[in-house]
Amino acid sequence: MKEVFEIGLNLIRKIEETQSENLEASGILIAHAFMNGHQFFVSGSGHSHTVTEEFYGRAGGLAFVKPILTSELTLTEHPTKSSYLERLNGYASILAELYHISKDDVVLIASNSGRNAYPVELAIESKKRGAKVIAITNINHSSQVTSRHESGLLLKDIADIVIDNCGVIGDSALQLEGMNAGMCPTSSMANSFIVQAINVACGQELLKNGVQPPVFVSLNCDGNEDVNDKLFKKYTRVY
Questions:
Q1: Taxonomically, which superkingdom (predicted)?
Q2: Which domains does the chain have, with CATH numbers?
Q3: Are 160 and 57 in contact (CB under 8 A)?
Q4: Residue 55, CA atoms < 13 Å, CB-side half-sphere
Q5: CB half-sphere exposure, 121, CA atoms < 13 A
Q6: What is the DSSP pairing of strand 132-137 with strand 106-110?
Q7: Where are the alpha helices (DSSP H) in 59-186?
Q8: Is 60 left (phi over 0), alpha (psi -120 to 50) or beta?
Q9: For residues 96 and 122, is the Cβ–Cβ distance under 8 A?
Q10: Nearest by Cα to 111 from 127, 99, 122, 100
Q11: Are 198 and 27 in contact (CB under 8 A)?
């Protein structure tokens, strides 16, 4: 148990030491897109879809986030369905069209390996449309695998800002004696801190420019229902 805590705490410290500049730059980029009337999209597939949920619709989170969170990219329908779909060339371009990704928008894409067709293609399509791309990925892992997208590119090769989740190859950071497979995957731990750091950096930049950050509050505190309803009405996408 001590090792689990050591792994998690060391991971967060490493992110703080090595990624703070990119985290702040991401928040500033998102803030200025919002102030200039552009959109902020977030997406990921498989377990990386949880980054989208960490950004969207939760207390303390920015209300203007636009989630690209289709059920087939998650594990809700079948445990391996998303693994097949994220390897398909052509699927991300459909979603880029359906969600109207446009010039000067910001698209944040999470992918631990950064190799599958979906995140790579979404990054390429977003850049083609004139949007800026932020990637959350595992540089250690991504640097030692080949792309599954027809371009041969990895997510880290395309993004304007690359945030390293500082994980190990295969994500699982703890090897128990007598086991062949590792345990304690760190990407989820890392991603939660990364998301909140970006949120706060964005909020700080908005305040610096005289803009009150639109932030959701907890519905489990009395009297808050109207706050979130107004934010959803103003910012939730309607396609």
A1: Bacteria
A2: 2-235 (3.40.50.10490)
A3: no
A4: 29
A5: 20
A6: parallel
A7: 81-85, 91-98, 117-128, 139-142, 155-158
A8: left
A9: yes
A10: 122
A11: yes
- Interior/surface letters 203-222, b for 16+ CB within 10 angstroms, e for the rest: bebbeeeeeebbbbbeeeee
Higher pLDDT among residues 174 and 85, named by residue: 174
Residue tagged 């800002």 (tokens): 161
Summarised one tens digit per residue, pLDDT across range 60-118 is 999 999 999 888 888 888 878 888 888 889 999 999 999 999 999 999 999 999 999 99
Secondary structure (3-state) at 161: strand
Q: Which among 239, 22, 17, 1 is positioned nearest to 133, based on CA atoms?
A: 22
Cβ–Cβ < 8 Å for 173, 185: yes
8-state DSSP, 75: S
CA–CA separation, 208 and 229 (whole Å): 26
Which token pair is 204?
A: 């700080």
The length of the chain is 239
The residue with tokens 């928008």 is 105
* Terminal-residue alpha carbon distance, the chain: 47
